[in-house]
Amino acid sequence: MNVQLIAAECIQYFEENLSKIRACLDLVDETEIWIKPSGNSNAVGNQLLHLVGNIRQYVLSGLAGWSDLRDRSYEFDAKGGMSKAQLLDALIETVAEAVAEMKSLNPDELYCKRAVQGKNDWTVTGIMIHVTQHFSYHTGQIVFWTKMLRDVDMAFYTGPTLNDRVKTD
Hints:
Layout: H1 3-27, H2 44-63, H3 72-77, H4 84-103, E1 113-116, E2 119-123, H5 124-150, H6 162-168
Antiparallel strand pairs: 1-2
Helix pairs in contact: 1-4, 1-5, 2-4, 2-5
């Protein structure tokens, strides 16, 4: 297994998901990013804070050895205080830092154990996969909430739709 290949795949998903998040933020206004769909859901603003916190904790702290300054409670408790632009800038900066760290990994480190959240049982590979999957998961939530707010097809994917494929089969 090649660390550069894994990193390249993760980076591709980071870029794809950042593009989707940008498109969503273009469609919602400043107040809507802090609206929670329900009592058991998180606002887009909370999702963005959470993504920054997760990437910083797992990649920048877990892989790169930076101090873990995460305040997970704040990520979910915040009800405002940052604009769409500030949240997006923080996410873009964090992703760029994470990408740089992943690109710099030594191939011999793939199976090395690293501590995240006080547990020393994460492999370097596991951290990269977890962060990528987590980023994609919350991007999907942001896309779903944007679709609910705006009743739009985000048109992220081109080509035949499922209905078109069924008709031609």
